[in-house]
């Protein structure tokens, strides 16, 4: 995708569960079983990703709605993070000018306005746990069938509390010393 | 539940999740089979005790007690994942001034130690395993005896809340505070406050049916922690952290009532 096309980014809508909070937005990705928390800046940008609003327009909206500098690099930063979280239809390609902006440079810009560094676009993510990972312990026989290396479950083995369900190799978990 | 040893049924009620009652329907969703081991037909041979869930072998051990411990854990997890009107979060819970303190965390994160310390400090016992949330976000008691590992690597022992001088909660209560913490030797408990969204992510990471019912889980957690302080940080000794948490909740409730 060219930078011109990605100047009108579009938010992904399919297979997502969205929960709006007063200041943030939570998104659950049904396809990947990941949950994301968008801070106010990232949420505002994501909500405007309708394929018709340009990056420049979004920057203007940042100023209007969040009282942030109308800085396109801030929008590109948000789009970059939303893309990495797979919350856009297509990942964005940062134009040369935006790609040059580092997080530090944007913070320097924002720090001119006291307290605004907290509003840097942020997307926090977790992988939703398997139910089996919420047990107090895991039977030895079950550990061997956990097919999610490298993490396995890390739970203690019920029959041998000194051992935990850990990675044996690329495809198998096994009881090993905790 | 079925077994080849009649006397075994007497031990089953103690293994059922708190609040269990006879079903009104004969519809069986999960059939557990316990086969008791013991001496074999020939000298020097022992038979394993076994546990099956439907047709899947869940455990095989020489000790029947180990098999029953796995039955208890598996049954609780099954209910936690599939309860239709509740969201189960892997967390310790105590009550304080009519509000719940939730301590989400994985096994071995030190939940039970902190719950024990809170009980010694005067809190009411709700659970050391699961926070059971209804659709309004209130926490229901799940008061299994506390499962305490008295030394590293040992099987846990069961201790009733009353042994800590604590009462056990009987009614659902709203969440008053969430503490995301784990033990680190020598650490001073200086938690930072998380935003509501980040706090919900921490809870989601410990929510049993999140993959099965993500929409309900998100909505329920959102209701449960609205305007609730969510603290995160490592802790040292449990007694110090318990005292700090109770003070934080009391202060929050005091300031909340002043606003009202």
Which features characterize this protein?
heterodimer, A: 178 residues, 2 domains, two-stranded antiparallel ribbon, 6 helices, B: 260 residues, 8-stranded mixed beta sheet, 4-stranded mixed beta sheet, 16 strands, globular
The proportion of residues forming helix of chain A, as a percent range, comes to 25-40%
Major β-sheet profile of chain B: 8 strands, mixed
Low-confidence stretches of chain B: none
Secondary-structure element string of chain A: EEEHHHHHEHEE
Terminal Cα span of chain B = 52 Å
Q: How much helix is in the residues of chain B?
A: 25-40%
Radius of gyration of CA atoms of chain B, rounded to a whole number:
20 Å
- The helix/strand series of chain B, from N terminus to C terminus, equals EEEEEEHEEHEEEEEEEHHEH
Poorly predicted runs of chain A are none
Strand numbers in spatial order across the main sheet of chain A: 1-2-3-4
Instruction: Give the radius of gyration of chain A.
Output: 21 Å
Distance between the termini of chain A: 47 Å
Mean pLDDT metric of chain A: 81
Give the structural class of chain A: alpha+beta
| Counted beta strands of chain A | 6
Give the largest interface pair and sizes: A-B, 40 and 48 residues
CATH topology of the largest domain in chain B: Rossmann fold
| CATH architecture assignment of the largest domain in chain B | 3-Layer(aba) Sandwich
């Amino acid at each position: 995708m060219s930078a011109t096309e990605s100047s009108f980014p579009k938010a992904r809508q399919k297979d997502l569960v969205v929960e709006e909070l007063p200041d943030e937005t939570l998104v659950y990705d049904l396809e990947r079983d990941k949950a994301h928390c968008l801070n106010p800046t990232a949420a505002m940008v994501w909500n405007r990703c309708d394929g018709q609003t340009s990056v420049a327009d979004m920057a203007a909206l940042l100023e209007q709605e969040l009282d942030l500098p109308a800085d396109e690099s801030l929008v590109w930063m948000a789009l970059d993070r939303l893309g990495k979280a797979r919350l856009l239809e297509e990942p964005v390609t940062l134009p040369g000018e935006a790609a040059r902006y580092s997080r530090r440079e944007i913070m320097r810009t924002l720090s001119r306005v006291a307290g605004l560094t907290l509003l840097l676009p942020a997307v926090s993510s977790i992988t939703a746990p398997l139910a089996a990972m919420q047990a107090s312990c895991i039977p030895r026989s079950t550990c061997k069938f956990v097919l999610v290396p490298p993490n396995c479950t890390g739970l203690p083995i019920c029959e041998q509390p000194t051992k935990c369900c850990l990675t044996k190799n690329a495809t198998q978990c096994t009881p090993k010393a905790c | 539940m079925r077994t080849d040893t009649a006397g075994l049924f007497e031990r089953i009620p103690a293994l059922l999740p708190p609040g269990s009652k006879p079903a009104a329907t004969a519809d069986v969703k999960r059939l557990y089979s316990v086969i008791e081991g013991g001496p074999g037909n020939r000298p020097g041979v022992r038979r394993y005790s076994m546990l099956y869930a439907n047709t899947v072998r869940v455990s095989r051990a020489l000790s029947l007690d180990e098999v029953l411990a796995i039955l208890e854990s598996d049954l609780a997890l099954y209910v936690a994942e599939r309860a239709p009107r509740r969201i189960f979060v892997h967390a310790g819970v105590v009550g304080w001034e009519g509000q719940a303190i939730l301590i989400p965390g994985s096994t071995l994160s030190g939940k039970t130690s902190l719950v024990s310390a809170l009980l010694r400090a005067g809190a009411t016992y709700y659970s050391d395993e699961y926070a059971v949330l209804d659709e309004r976000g209130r926490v229901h008691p799940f008061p299994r005896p506390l499962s305490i590992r008295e030394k590293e690597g040992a099987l846990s022992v069961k201790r009733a809340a009353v042994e800590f001088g604590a009462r056990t909660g009987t009614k659902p209560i709203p969440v008053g505070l969430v503490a995301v913490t784990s033990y680190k030797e020598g650490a001073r408990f200086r938690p930072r406050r998380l935003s509501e969204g980040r706090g919900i992510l921490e809870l989601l990471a410990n929510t049993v049916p999140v993959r099965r019912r993500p929409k309900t889980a998100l909505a329920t957690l959102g209701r449960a922690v609205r305007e609730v302080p969510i603290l995160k940080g490592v802790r040292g000794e449990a007694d110090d952290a318990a005292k700090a948490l109770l003070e934080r909740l009391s202060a929050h409730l005091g300031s909340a009532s002043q606003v009202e």
